[in-house]
Amino acid sequence: MTDSEPTATQHAWGLTSSGETRWPAAIAMAGALLLQFRLPEKLTIGPRWALPAVEALVLVTLLIVSPTKFDETSRDVRFVSLGLLALLTGANATTLALLMHNLLKSGSSIPGRSLVYSAVSIWLTGVIAYALWYWEIDRGGPSRRCRSDHAAPDFWFAQMENPGVTRTPWTPHFLDYLYVSVTNSSAFSPTDALPLTLRAKALMSAQSLTSLATIVVVGARAVNILK
Predict the structure, then answer these.
(1) Is residue 13 part of a domain?
(2) Which of these ranges, 44-53, 90-99, 129-138, 198-207, has the smallest mean pLDDT?
(3) Does pLDDT of 9 surpass 50?
(4) 20 to 30 Å CA-CA from 138: which of 20, 64, 129, 157?
(5) What is the pLDDT of residue 200?
(6) Within a domain: residue 2?
(7) Which of 15-29, 77-91, 101-115, 204-218 has the lowest mean pLDDT?
(8) Structural domains in the chain (count)
(9) Range of 152's domain?
(10) End-to-end CA distance of the chain, in Å?
């Protein structure tokens, strides 16, 4: 092994990222905002365009003040990103609560297709929101992962345990966290990436409960009254 090759300890801790781009996360966030915009107004607080408009403004501001390519000198504006994610997650949870309230209050008078479409929108928004959470917290976020003094890993990926499966040094990017989010929402449990920290476990638990409520409670009822 040469001095430039990463050691097993470095793989287990998580290699320093060679640089990430914000665009995949920004596109995913834009998709979540579009899903919110298409929700019926009875499932939103105020006009359905109001909250997505505020979130879009914050997203554009974030793209302006923060670089789209992360490196060791990148400006850390995680407080803006985390605030935007908290807003998106809270709005999605509110939509789910309103959907369940209307379902229990109105029963079969609610059109089945409307419930199905809303449930799908809530589920997809949750997948995107939690993928962004995982991307932002793991080892201190994308700007911190570029530094050699990055924080301890929040997730243990298979490539970190088996470094020989990749030809080049591997570090997770947004699409890896999106995959973790999809599998957690589908299987209600981690698959190839295990949560190591309490905050990662708390986020994955919240996502599983939200997904379970959406799929089992709302989805099953909507299918029963589908016309």
Answers:
(1) no
(2) 44-53
(3) no
(4) 64
(5) 95
(6) no
(7) 101-115
(8) 1
(9) 18-224
(10) 65
Phi-psi category of 40—alpha, beta or left, where left has phi over 0 and alpha has psi -120 to 50?
beta
Distances (CA, A) of 13 to 8, 10, 79, 150: 9, 5, 25, 10
The verdict on residue 197 lying in a domain is yes
pTM: 0.86
CB of 155 closer than 8 Å to CB of 131: no
In a domain, 5, yes or no: no
Instruction: Report residue 147 as tokens.
Output: 């530094």
- Of the chain, the percentage scoring pLDDT greater than 70 comes to 79
Residue found by looking up tokens 């997904």 in the block? 211
Would you say 138 and 154 are in contact if contact means Cβ atoms under 8 Å apart?
Answer: yes
- Could you report the per-residue pLDDT of 59-74, keeping only the tens digit for each? 888 887 776 777 666 6
The predicted structure's pLDDT at residue 188: 77
- What's the residue count for the chain? 227
